[in-house]
Amino acid sequence: MNDLILRTARGEKTERTPVWLMRQAGRILPEYRAVRNSVSGFVELCQTPELAAEVTIQPVDLLGVDAAIIFSDILVIPEAMGLPYEMVEKRGPFFPNTIQSEADLQKIRVADVESDLGYVLEAIKLTKKELNGRVPLIGFAGAPFTIFCYMIEGQGSKTFSKAKKMFYTNPEFSHQLLQMITDSTIAYLKAQIKAGADMIQIFDSWAGILSPEQYSVFAMPYINQICDAITEVPKTVFAKGAYFAREAIGRSNCNTVGLDWNMDVAESRMLTNGKVLQGNLDPCALYGSNAEVEKATKAMLDKFGPDKHIANLGHGVYPDIDPEKVKVFINTVKEYSEKMR
Ligand code: CP3
Question: What pLDDT is stored for residue 90 in this prediction?
């Protein structure tokens, strides 16, 4: 029924600006914690389609967003390729085994999506049924470079220097692993679309740590492969911190370019070849008072203008943000963007 985000992503003029939040499912809602506490942990929640569907729909019911994003994680791809992970409370992901050498490549495989990731596809089907057309469902995957970071490093890092070291010391091996991740990701996204995902987003969360030259060699070609292969639905590329890559992403086959809060909107419009833009309020702006959130949201909308914009934060919503502030952000987008027409 509400297909605003799909029409906007296709470049059509709409009656108002659509709005959703990266990481809207899971981080901020007490209703999520309740479901999460009913199972052993994050991984089990991801692998239980009924519960994954329930927490996917929570933000639609409780916050009023214009899209749902399937509850899962970018790290299900390394797991499906043969590297299981744990989600350590308050610390984040941890992989007991990592990829360090050519010999390790022999131990992993391109994901067999239907058998290894069937639980995500099942969650998508259930979510679609329960959403019953209320809002579109976004499928997603990590960009090959960001997934490569976790497969080499085994956990979060400020610099991902072990992963970057591979680009300097063994570029050929790096390309082999990046290609395996890309092949897995294309199959995975196609399966998500077949299961019901109405649009997809690629998260390149660590893009900003690469030099522009390395981005053009080790990241962009694989994003291009994905964008060229997915022709069924609109595609968003969000490369956090990669202000230097906006032009290349603008030339890619994606529909929407995600912006973080450091990226100037007018400059991004000039660089991105007429693409739809998504973003880009500083997530910390939601720590302000209701009046301040409203003011910052209106200022953001003024910068983007009424067309070719999907409102969002410039990165995922932070875990300690008051859901009431998120509602102020969402309602301001809905009301103010309608008046901008
Ligand atoms: O957007 C959504 O709400 C849908 C679900 C979603 C999750 N992770 C659930 C999750 C999405 C789209 C992601 C993407 C993701 N995961 C990214 C890219 C986006 C970004 O923020 O840059 C990255 C880098 C990851 C890897 C990851 N997963 C980390 C570093 C962590 C630990 C810290 C954190 O973000 O909470 C996770 C865990 C995770 N993924 C949780 C959720 C709800 C919290 C786990 C819990 O409930 O215990």
Answer: 87
